[in-house]
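Hi team,

As requested, here is the filled-out complex form for the 1,3-dihydroxyacetonephosphate run. I kept the field names the same as last time so the parser does not choke. Let me know if anything looks off before we queue the next batch.

— J.
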Amino acid sequence: MIRDLQDKILRLKKERDFCILAHSYESHEILEVADYTGDSFGLSKSAMNVPQKNLLLCGVRFMAETAKILSPEKRVYLSHSMAGCPMAEQFDKERVLALKEQYPDAPVVAYINTTAALKTVCDVCVTSSSAVKIVRAMREKRIIFIPDCNLGAFVQKAVPEKELILLPGGCPVHAAMSKSDVARAKAAHPDALFLVHPECKREVVDAADFAGSTTAIMDFVRDSAQSEFIIGTENSIVAHLQYEYPERRFYPLSVELSCSNMRVTTLPDVYNCMLGTAGEEILLDEATIAAARRPIDAMIAMGG
Ligand code: 13P
Ligand code: SF4
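And here is what came back:
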């Protein structure tokens, strides 16, 4: 049945001129029908160069908004209208403007997990794979970093010459992990390497053998000779890695590491969205697109 539906999706993609971009946290059957898969940075770059007229984003809303901002002439769809990211809603424009007033010499670096409206008042966007490189390359010493204080702390450690202003905020799924989850997983799998996403708290990231974006974690495994890994990011990555490397072993840091927003999209949603009976077209006004594009372009130029 899955194969039948995938074949229908592949046919419909051609008939209706769709390109499918899917974040690595999506299910295996969705990744199989996608034209591009990867982390937030990889998806942003892919969104700029697709030849198709229609773009279908399987992931969460801020990713579809980013695709629309980068390809405003295309029709961009989010495959499930309930797929949001709670972190993206944590700051609003007024709060950022107040911060700018408080620290007039400090540019605002925004994690890409923010709304299009918020990006209009930020200076540079970053993703988990580009944040260290971009912050290091910035001229200013003092930088306001929003909304993820855990990613911010990770960047601060890697770039000690900068002074990052961090505020409470972040991914509720990753930030729920603690030292005791790490101790439990390591006790159960003492020979495994521990790989983690920098959205986790400092105490978790500090205990890891490697920290990086979803793509960086998968690349680390590809290049490693090790045969066992504890994975400290959304548990879909555990499943993808286990499928890719059946001779190795992958363990979740915790069964709790599951993002309901990333999991909400199903293969039928992808099909129905292309038919126009599910999902949502992303519509942004021209002024928002123009203003939100500045920090995204800066990210691509500096992080590329
Ligand atoms: P990356 O795509 O940068 O790995 O981030 C993961 C994430 O939580 C996306 O929402
Ligand atoms: Fe947002 Fe966290 Fe889910 Fe990523 S994993 S989409 S940051 S809630």
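Two things worth flagging: The pocket of iron/sulfur cluster (ligand 2) is lined by residues 60, 85-87, 113, 171, 173-174, 199, 234, 259, 261-262 (CB under 6 Å). The domain at 93-171 is CATH 3.40.50.10800 (Rossmann fold).

Thanks,
J.
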